[in-house]
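Lab notebook, bench 4. Still working through the backlog of constructs that have no structural model yet. Next entry is a single chain of 306 residues. Request: give me the structure tokens for it.
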Amino acid sequence: MYQWRFARGSVVDCASSSRDLIRDATLCWILLIKRNRLSRRAKSGDGIYESALDTNLSSTNCWYCRDLRPCPSSIRSIARSEPHAGHPEINALAWEGPEDLRFINTDDVGVAFLAKTIRLNGHSVFMRPRLQPLLVPDNAKLVAVTRIEAEPDAALDSAQREASVKEIIAVTSLPRVVAVQVDFDATKSQQGFYRDLLVRLRSVLPPGMPISITALASWCIGDDWISGLPVDEAVPMLFRLGTGTNEVATLLQSAHDFRDPLCRDSLGISTDERWRKFSSGRRLYVFHPRPWTKQARAALFWELHR
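Model written out:
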């Protein structure tokens, strides 16, 4: 059974099939658009139309449907079959800019936020904390992301590895963090260092703290270097791919999947890039090129369920 939550807090049962769900939601949006258009006419003295459409919206349980959001039971098309405890199936990416995500339904959506950036230069390690404000509900589930950037002259020695691991461990003490994610576009020559870092990180983190890493699409298609990494997931980041877009799109739209099993449980996508389809059962990390809003959230769920 599907349910929808509405702005006034009421919960109504919807159709038991996805086809009926889409039909009901489509009708809701059509009526809302019509009401908005006719509302402008009402301001010029033609108010009878708005009154009639308000009745229609009430009869279809669509009051304030611009704020509707699916309950967790309706996200099964994209939810993992065995999610890590407390790690949401949909995560809004909060990167460099200020974000106010207090409107999210924390039953459905988590927040993967940039917590700090580590820069490796020569034999030095520089850390830059998050500089922009992030507002979330008190019960939000957070994934703390640490970005690693290595300059060409970085020594990538044991001292830099230990310092980087220490910085990543520190983000687990932040409130409401349920998982850590490492974002490092390691080149071929940096991959050995990265593997050692992740092995060390896993050995010192509590066993119940999931480790996620972002992954270049090429790592998941034909590069075996991530095989056997001690992480819970490798997230193929499927936006801003440039020349690799067609190759990845063809793979996902065929009957095949990513070569490495670590890449099969999650995806990174963007709200401003379209992907035709991908198989269900994946955790999503969603990038939005502008600050997140209620409207952007509603549009995301609409796209996921259409």
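Notes after review: Confidence is low (pLDDT under 50) at residues 1-35, 37-83. Residues 3-70 form one domain. Flag for follow-up if needed.
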